[in-house]
Amino acid sequence: MASGGANLSFSATSGTNTTGSVAGPVVVAPQATSASQSGLTFNGTTVGATQNGTFSVIDPAAGNTPQSGTVTVAVYGHAAPDLTTGTLALGNVHVGYTSAVTSSTLSVNNTAGFRANLKGSTGAIGNISVGSVNGIAQARAPPSARHWPPARARERSARASPTRLATIPS
């Protein structure tokens, strides 16, 4: 917010973990607040809940220019599927049997870390189809990120069953 009797006429430049700029001058009247300005983008690559970026705000007419600013964001890693291996036991299937034979002995998990939820699907392979995988949260977060998401959200995701059914059509 500009104070006093002069307009604030600023621009902004990127710093650490940011790129771009806000082309000036952006003019703000005394006792007013500017609208949101586009042009700066966070480009940090470290995964975690509280990643910081910096930028500078410059007004050539101000006596205390430049001023620095900080942006804090959560950066998620890519989902990392982990398929349990083992034998898929379907039992005996008779010729002419019309119902699907299903099994839930295989499961898909999203490996630990600060990761985006896992989702995906696949088409049938021969006579075997696999149900789609959606919204599987990451396994337990590493100690540095355990405060994000909140404990209640982690408990809900831990209770959700990641198991998907394999179906063999007749």
How many distinct beta strands?
12
Main sheet record:
5 strands, antiparallel
How helix-rich are the residues, as a percent range? under 10%
Gap from first CA to last CA: 70 Å
| Rounded mean pLDDT score | 76
Count up the helices.
1
Radius of gyration: 26 Å
How do the SSEs run, as a string of H and E?
EEEEEEEEEEEHE
Uncertain runs are: 141-170
What is the approximate shape?
rod-shaped
Total tally of structural domains: 2
* Structural class designation: mainly beta
How large is the share of residues in beta strands?
Answer: 35-45%
Distinctive features:
single chain, 170 residues, mainly beta, 2 domains, five-stranded antiparallel β-sheet, 1 helix, 36% strand, rod-shaped
Please describe what this structure looks like.
The chain is mainly beta and 170 residues long. It has 2 domains: 8-75, no CATH class; 81-168, no CATH class. It contains 1 helix and 12 strands, in the order E-E-E-E-E-E-E-E-E-E-E-H-E. It has one helix spanning 151-159, and strands at 8-14, 18-28, 40-42, 48-58, 67-75, 81-83, 101-103, 108-110, 118-120, 129-130, 133-136, 166-168. The chain is rod-shaped and about 90 Å long.
Brief overview:
Helix content is 5%, strand content 36%. With 170 residues, it is mainly β. It starts with 7 loop residues before the first strand and ends with a strand.
Give the secondary structure arrangement, pairings included:
Blueprint: E1 8-14, E2 18-28, E3 40-42, E4 48-58, E5 67-75, E6 81-83, E7 101-103, E8 108-110, E9 118-120, E10 129-130, E11 133-136, H1 151-159, E12 166-168
Antiparallel strand pairs: 1-2, 1-4, 2-3, 4-5, 6-8, 7-12, 9-11, 10-12
